[in-house]
Design goal:
The structure holds two protein chains of two kinds. Helix content of chain A is 6%, strand content 40%. Chain A is mainly beta. In chain A, the strands form two sheets. A five-stranded antiparallel β-sheet of chain A has the order 5-4-3-6-7, covered by helices on one side. In chain A, strands 1-2 form a two-stranded antiparallel sheet. By secondary structure, chain B is of the alpha/beta class. Helix content of chain B is 36%, strand content 16%. In chain B, strands 3-2-4-5-1-6-9-8-7 form a nine-stranded mixed β-sheet. The relative contact order of chain B is 0.20. The mean pLDDT of chain B is 96. Classes of the chains: A mainly beta, B alpha/beta. Chains A and B meet through strand 3, strand 4 and strand 5 of A and helix 5 and helix 6 of B.
Amino acid sequence: MMAIAKPFYEGLRRRQLLLPWCKSCGKCHFYPRSACPHCWSEQYDWRPAAGTGTVHSFTIVRSNPPSAFRPRLPYTIAIIDLDEGVRLMSNILSDPETLKIGDRVKVEFVERDNEMLPLFRAIP
Amino acid sequence: MSKRSGALAAVVGIGEVPTGNYPERSALEAGARAARMAVRDSGIDKRDIDVVIPAGAIFSRDFNSDLVFGRMVEELGLLGSVHANLQVMAGGATGSNLLKVAAGLVHSGLAKNVLCVHADKLASGLPIEVAIDVFSTLGIPEEWERPYGQHFSSIAALMTRRYMEETGTTAEQLTSVCVSQRKWAELNPNAMFRKPLTVEEVLASKILSEPLHAKESNVLADGASSFVVTSAERAADVTATPVYLLGAGGRVTHYSLSQEKDMVHFGYAAAARDAFAMAGIGPKDIDIAEIYDSYPVVNLCVLEELGLVPRGEAGAFVAAGNTWPGGKLPMTTNGGMLSQGHTGAGGGVAILVEAVRQLMGKAGARQVPNPSIAVETSVGGSYMDAQVLVLSKEVR
């Protein structure tokens, strides 16, 4: 783990999805880099995201996953555009058969293998 | 990178061993054989090779260390006359980048003749379960994507679904890329898969990650390929069939797929603009498109981004047979990684070697009639970059 990303993981344990906003140029980025990719400042203001976003693409994994994921088949990987304008990868908890690109999703915090993860569910 | 540069270098010799599952063949012997073939093909005395560039190998850290530390030079009997042995590794984009680096060396005069060689053993060198896990970690960020089960099939699936959504391309049209590649591989004695393949068979194969079918996925293979690079000035004195590098372009657009701003178009249009401007050509001048495939969506994206086919029409273009043997735009004529086999960094080296082979007129049963200009593309990692080279039979 990068030291600068520590507030992100601590936020997850408090069920918060924190995003790094650069104190120098004011821009947000994700995932957290060792310095702001826009201006190279190393000072962030960590602010909670709204937790809502839009599905950019997704796939239902049916077979040949990494070995650690075999017991989880089938599972859904999605690339999500958060409303703050940054993109991340996650899993979808709701029914993937009705999921479409462009669907609105909301974060849900789930503990998996002793790690708190920000997963997403479609907003009905 | 935007003005016409003249020929940057020339490829004057190529070599390749069959791609497939060869448990009895060591990677070192395969690589050395391909290298000897390339040097013999060039007509250059082996003692005139002064730089050796081994591509990165994935199956074994020991073998890769051997390559870094000069084993290929020792194996080939080139000790004392080679002044530098250095590795180039850009994953799937290694072939294009090998040629860029070698061209820089010969163009500047830092090297006279450069031997580029790749060997890997991804079919028989490591168990399949290990291979899947290797390819679900390499190039996939540990903190931001691996916890969600990302791996190479899901990378291709995420790209494919978004491409289908934006272009309206159908599943049948996507699978026609696999059929096109196979038709070329049927004519390629070095290919792993040579039995005819139909759209129906691809669609009937099991789903890996929706919408990707098993037969839309490349298969890991053992293989080795090699080429020799010399200066454009020297090339015509060395061989009757030099192939000139006229232009090169590239864009690195992400490391993590989730950081790609545009996973339908990537950086190909910009890379092609640079390469075409350097070469002084346009898409209409291209006789063969040697596109790095790995999954069908990549071919469709590249056909469109290079301006060879209007955006959104590549699926219909391939499904109509335009890229097959005898078609108006021959594409990936060795069968690509979908049919010749995926040898790691070598998949792209093999496609570059094939582009040169076609321009040299040495492609045997699959020789395209008298091509003058080939475009070669490649990409590494989770489609992190877009590499575009323009190769020509003549200095233009």
